[in-house]
Amino acid sequence: MTVTVRETCTSLILIGLCSASRQVYDCSQQHSYTEEEHIFPRDDLVGEPVTVLVNLQQSVNQISSHFVGVTIDAALIHDKWRKLDFSSKRVQNMAKALTPSFFRLGGTSADSLTYVLYNGQNSTPPTQLGSHVPANLTAEAWETINEFTKEVGWDLIFDLNALKRNADGSWNHDNARQLLQFSADRNYTIAGFELGNEYDIYERKHNATLSPRQLAKDVMTLQTLLSQFPQYYSAFIIGPETATDNQQCFQGFLAAGGSKVVSAASFHHYYYSDEDEDVSRFTDIKTMDSFDHILDHVMDMTRSVNPQLPVWLSETSCTYDHGVANVSDRFVAGFLWLDKLGLCALNGVQTVIRQDFYGNNYSFLNPQQEPNPDFWLTVLYKRIVRGAVFNATGRHDVRVYAACANSFLLPAGSVVVYTLNPDDYPLTFDLPQFQTQPRMLWSLTGWGGDRLSKYTSLNGVKLELVNDELPDLPGKLAPPGVVTVPPYSFTFVAFYETSISICYE
Ligand SMILES: *[C@@H]1O[C@H](CO)[C@@H](O)[C@H](O)[C@H]1NC(C)=O
Ligand SMILES: *[C@@H]1O[C@H](CO)[C@@H](O)[C@H](O)[C@H]1NC(C)=O
Ligand SMILES: *[C@@H]1O[C@H](CO)[C@@H](O)[C@H](O)[C@H]1NC(C)=O
Ligand SMILES: *[C@@H]1O[C@H](CO)[C@@H](O)[C@H](O)[C@H]1NC(C)=O
Ligand SMILES: *[C@@H]1O[C@H](CO)[C@@H](O)[C@H](O)[C@H]1NC(C)=O
Ligand SMILES: *[C@@H]1O[C@H](CO)[C@@H](O)[C@H](O)[C@H]1NC(C)=O
C-alpha cells in the first residue's frame, strides 16, 4: 500500500464512493439501489446524548484478520452435510466473504467419529469410551471438506476423536494417525487441532468421564504424534474446549500441563438454552453482562496459570443446541453477537469462532443457503474493525466499543467506534474527541426497522446477494457533531482523518 493510494481513497470516501468491498481500493464501483428507507429518526425523538470517551493512549488488545472465525458442526458429517452444497458458487462466495478465517470442524459428534479412509481399514478398532452413536468420516467427506476449505481460503482446525481409548484409559491415537497419514499423503493443509469437545460434560453427552490430568496427558500425546508428520509439525493445538467456565475442567487442564502444549486456552459459550424463546432476552443488557462475568472468570483462570497464554472462544453462539427458530436467524440475533465480539475484543480474547456456518437456527446461512442477518453483520465487522482495541467508556447500559479501522478499507490511523442500540428509540452519542471529525457510517437495521426481520438493511438499503455475489457494503458520509443511531440497530462509525499513532502499527 502506498500513501498515494490512501490519499486517493480518502478523497473518494469524501465523495461517498468508497465501499466496504473486498476490492478495497476499487472505489470506482457505484452501487445502484432502488429502494431507500428512511430509518434515521426525527431529532425531536432523540434523548440526552450519551458522552463517550475513548482511551486512545493505550491499546488493550489486538484484533487480527482472524479474530472472527466460523464452525461447521461435526453432526453435519453424520447427516451427510444435509443440504449444504459445497460446490455451490453462492455458498463459496459467502464463505470467501469471511476469509481470512479459522474454520473449526468439531462438536459433540466429532468425539464419536471413526475415520474410515482406507479399504479394509480397522481390523480391531479401539475401545470407544461411553455410549455413542457411531458414525464414520469417510475419505470422500474428508476430501470434500479439505477441498472446500482450500477453495475458499479458510484455515482448518479439526477436532479429533478423544473418546477412543486404550485399556489403561489413555487416548488411543491409532485412528488419528491414520487420518494424519491420509491427509499428509494428499498434502492437506491443517492449521490446528483440538482433542475432544466439551469433556467437562462428557457424562451428560456420552455417559463417560475424563479427568483434566488425563486430557492434559492426551494432548501431549497429540503433540508428539503431530511432530512425526512434517506437514503438521507446526500445526497448533488448542484446548480444553470446555462447555462452561468450570474451574476444575478448564483451569485444572491448564494447570495439569495442558498450558505447556496448547497455543491457546479455549472454551465455549452459549447464553442459555433454546427452550427459552423470549425475544427480549436477546436485547437485554443483563444477558450481555452474563457473558462479561464468565469472560472475567476465564481470563483470571488462564492468567493464574500462564499470563501469556492467549484465550480463544472457540465455539459460541446465542442459545444451545440449535438456536431459537424465527429469532436466532433474525436481525435481533445480532445484539448478543456484536456485544460478544466487543467484549471479547476489549477483554483480550484473541479469536472468537462462531457456531456455525450452516445447519442450525443460529447459522450464517439458512437451510436454503441464503444469508441470515448475522452473516452480514460478521462480514461488515471483519471488513471494518482491525488492529488495536481501545477502551471506550460511556454509560453502563449503553454498549460502545472502539478499535482501529481496517487499513485495507480506510486510511491508516483511522478509528472506528461501534455500538448497538437494543432499544426501540434512537440514541445520540457525543464523542467530544471526534466532534469535528468527518466520518463514515455503516448502520444496520432489520429491514423496515423490524428487529425480527429475516433481512438486514445497511443505511436503509436491503442487503441481498446479486447473482450469488455479495453486493458492495458502502458506508455513508455523515456530518461532524453528535452521532445518532436508529432504534434496534448496529452502527459502525469510522473517523478516517484521525491519524491515531497506534493505528499505524
Ligand atoms: C463405518 O465403517 C465400518 C467399516 O467400513 C462399517 O463396518 C460400518 O458399518 C460403518 N458405520 C456406519 C455408521 O456407517
Ligand atoms: C504433495 O506435495 C509434494 C511436494 O510438493 C508433491 O511431490 C506431491 O506430488 C504432492 N502430492 C499430491 C497428492 O498432491
Ligand atoms: C453408562 O455407563 C455405565 C457404566 O459404564 C453403564 O452401566 C450404563 O448402562 C451406561 N448408561 C447408559 C444410559 O448407557
Ligand atoms: C417460524 O416461521 C415460519 C414462517 O413464518 C413458520 O412456518 C414456523 O412455524 C415458525 N416456527 C416456529 C418454531 O415458530
Ligand atoms: C429450528 O428450530 C426448530 C424448532 O426448534 C427445529 O424444528 C428446526 O429443525 C430448527 N432448524 C434448524 C435449521 O436448525
Ligand atoms: C476500561 O475503562 C474502565 C473505566 O475506566 C475500567 O473500569 C475498565 O477496567 C477498563 N477496561 C479495560 C479492559 O481496560
Overall description:
The protein contains eleven helices and 27 strands. It is an alpha/beta fold and 505 residues long. Strands 2, 3, 18, 19, 20, 22, 23, 24, 25 and 27 form a ten-stranded antiparallel β-sheet that branches. The two termini are 14 Å apart. The N terminus is likely disordered. The protein binds 2-acetamido-2-deoxy-beta-D-glucopyranose (6 copies). The site of one 2-acetamido-2-deoxy-beta-D-glucopyranose (NAG) has 2 residues, from loops.
Kindly estimate the percentage of residues that lie in beta strands according to DSSP.
Answer: 15-25%
Q: What is the overall number of helices? A: 11
Associated small molecules:
2-acetamido-2-deoxy-beta-D-glucopyranose
Calculate Rg over CA atoms: 23 Å
Low-confidence stretches: 1-45
Outline type: globular
Structural class: alpha/beta
Main sheet overview: 10 strands, antiparallel
* Helix share bin: 25-40%
In whole angstroms, the N-to-C terminal distance is 14 Å
Overall mean pLDDT stands at 90
